[in-house]
Amino acid sequence: MQEERVAGKNDVAETIRQGIVDGELKPGQSIGSIDATAQKYEASVGATRLAFQELVQQGYLVARGRAGHFVADTIPDDPVAALPRRLSTDRLESIEEKLDDALPLLQDIIKRLDRLERRQK
């Protein structure tokens, strides 16, 4: 027996985001209720709610209280602008430290690969 695939938060968010970017969903257009959207994409209500929250944070949707969620009048044209806006300074510093730690290792790997490539010629 084959299991039916159920969409997750990322599937729902990406499908809606792509519809907005492709112009299938127009600025100001209602997305529909969370329940209806969950049913449409065969996703859980919780996953759909999280997808809507993510799209609001990224600037693709606006929440209008009980009226629901609507496509934003202007959408992000810069992929960086679509990143979650809640990254804390501590989190960014932690990421920067990890990148700084990884840089010497990556440089060493590149040097070794260059040496190996020269030997093979």
UniProtKB/TrEMBL annotation:
UniProt KW Transport keyword: no
Keywords: DNA-binding, Transcription, Transcription regulation
InterPro entries reported in the protein's UniProt record: Tscrpt_reg_HTH_GntR, WH-like_DNA-bd_sf, WH_DNA-bd_sf
Positions of the HTH gntR-type domain: 6-74
Pfam families reported for this sequence: GntR
GO MF: DNA binding
Keyword Transcription tagged: yes
Origin superkingdom: Bacteria
Protein name: DNA-binding GntR family transcriptional regulator
Species assigned in the record: Kineosporia succinea
